[in-house]
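Record minuted for completeness.

…
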Amino acid sequence: MSPVPPPGYYQTLIADDPFWLTLIKVVVIFAGLMVMTLFMIWFERRVVGRMQQRPGPNWNGPFGLLQSLADGLKLAFKEDIRPVLADKAVFFIAPVLSVVPAFVAWSVIPLGPEVSIFGERTALQLTDLPVGVLVVLACSSIGVYGIVLAGWASGSPYPLLGSLRSAAQVISYELALGLSIIAVVLYSGSLSTADIVSAQEGGWYVWLLPVSFLIFAVSMVGETNRAPFDLPEAESELVGGFHTEYSSLKFALFFLAEYVNMVTLSAVATTLFLGGWRAPWPLSLWAGANEGWFPLIWFLGKTMVFLFVYVWLRGTLPRQRYDQFMRLGWKLLIPVSLVWLMLVATLRVLRAELTTGQILIVGGVALVLLVGAALLLPDQPAPEEDPEPPVAADYPVPPLDLTVPPTPKRRRRAVTTSPDKDGETVGAGASREGDS
């Protein structure tokens, strides 16, 4: 088992990188994310096709691997249309604001331990900041501004509706996502992503903080506007959502931002809960599994598991209603996150102040008090049965006792006929009751 470096070690190591090495890292991360986007589009279509018993792309290249490249070239040569009522400057800046933060977030994600690149000792990470987790949260928050501005600058009601949905969505799920990370910070004692990976040398946080992991997993799907939480786009109801008026390369930037955000949050989940680049058991028993370039393989493998779950959800779950979606965020994820955070913080304090036996005694007393309170509470009387069938409270329905008055009968007016010049009869027609 490789020794754990002290906190701040990778910050000092990366700070000594020469300029050319930093430039190589930037180019490799940018190119890797571009290739990963092309791969994810192909991967999603193939997996969903297999789930729906159809082949998916299989024509361009072996197994259809060049289909994503063909789609990208097709988008590049499409006509770029801008609505007459659109704000020209904001209409152009919005897709850039969506895609740039998705790339910037990768600057603080550790891909591996210390390695040698052209004779220079460095870490497989662009930079390590003392507040790396906050950088990731800030990038995910800034990206929504591009969506909101795109809907507003289009000068059309449908994109505006999609952008407003996106603003409400990100506010709801950004809170739950941030609260789920606090427990990880409490146990690791650092906001540095590299130090969080080092702190999981004895065990992954997915086993220690399962509730935080589940909340983070649900919130990251809502954060990236993916099914079943793709309300900002919602093609069947919003005609494409915030990017309805976009075409050509501007639309391609939104498409790129969505898939890069998927990869980014999958990498963040791997870093925070699955040990980052550390090898899974039983490979971790081999000392060389966490040294050199092998950890890059483990990191990419864990990230691909999350990406497969993204595709799996899209191919199986239907889109939620807006009220269901908001209720899940505000009434379930956020309260559960707050209660779980209080339990984690209390346990941390008890472990620091008390021994294991004292903690068990305190926990047993608290459990006895809860059980006793539940038994001593008086039974609530059963509510009277409502003779009327229950009415859904969250979806507008007409009252069930509504009676529609009968339609008044029409009285036919006597039809008078008169011969015309050719000897044929012509009717004067009928009129409703009350006609004069």
Observations:
- The chain has one domain: 9-357.
- The CA atoms of residues 258 and 285 lie 37 Å apart.
- Residues 9-357 form one domain.
